[in-house]
User: Which sequence fits this backbone?
């Protein structure tokens, strides 16, 4: 395939620009890939001669090295990250949003276990902290969904019986003890 005669100083024509992007799409190349193939790193800054050369390369076939985004280095297997101050601050923020005391949170977490079997009140690793944050977010979401218009308020009789709105008493170790369940 021959390329047409081109004025070397002329700017890139709209037709050439469309042809470059069409040829790039046909080869599975993205914008970053096409930019990496240009001298200035920009398709728009090509001259007509440079665009013709790029079109010849794209239409000729062959393989192209794609520009890859740099990845952060991976942690070696078996490396355990310690809990961060930001994670502990998030746990504290969630505790305050729930209106719980520190000892109440401690008892709540002591009743639950991490996936590796340790009690949740032992937060040593970043994964432990993520599990506690996730649990507290679920609990906070359940607290937010409770009715606020008074229809869901517990009466004195309900509190004496230990249940909600005339229902059966809440079972110990239930999925959501709530702040009141921590006071016992």
Assistant:
């Amino acid at each position: 395939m021959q390329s047409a005669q081109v004025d070397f100083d002329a700017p890139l024509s709209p037709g050439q620009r469309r042809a470059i992007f069409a040829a790039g799409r046909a080869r599975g190349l993205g914008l970053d890939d096409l930019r990496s193939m240009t001298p200035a790193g920009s398709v728009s800054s090509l001259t007509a001669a440079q665009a013709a050369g790029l079109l010849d390369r794209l239409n000729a076939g062959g393989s192209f090295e794609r520009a890859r985004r740099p990845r952060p280095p991976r942690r070696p297997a078996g490396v355990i990250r310690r809990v961060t101050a930001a994670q502990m601050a998030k746990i504290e923020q969630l505790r305050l949003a729930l209106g719980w005391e520190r000892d109440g949170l401690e008892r709540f977490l002591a009743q639950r276990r991490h996936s590796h079997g340790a009690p949740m009140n032992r937060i040593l690793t970043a994964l432990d902290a993520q599990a506690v944050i996730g649990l507290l977010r679920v609990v906070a979401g359940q607290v937010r969904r409770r009715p606020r218009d008074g229809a869901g308020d517990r009466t004195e009789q309900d509190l004496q019986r230990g249940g909600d709105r005339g229902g059966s008493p809440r079972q110990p170790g239930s999925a959501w003890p709530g702040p009141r369940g921590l006071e016992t």
In short: The CA atoms of residues 7 and 142 lie 70 Å apart. Confidence is low (pLDDT under 50) at residues 163-171.
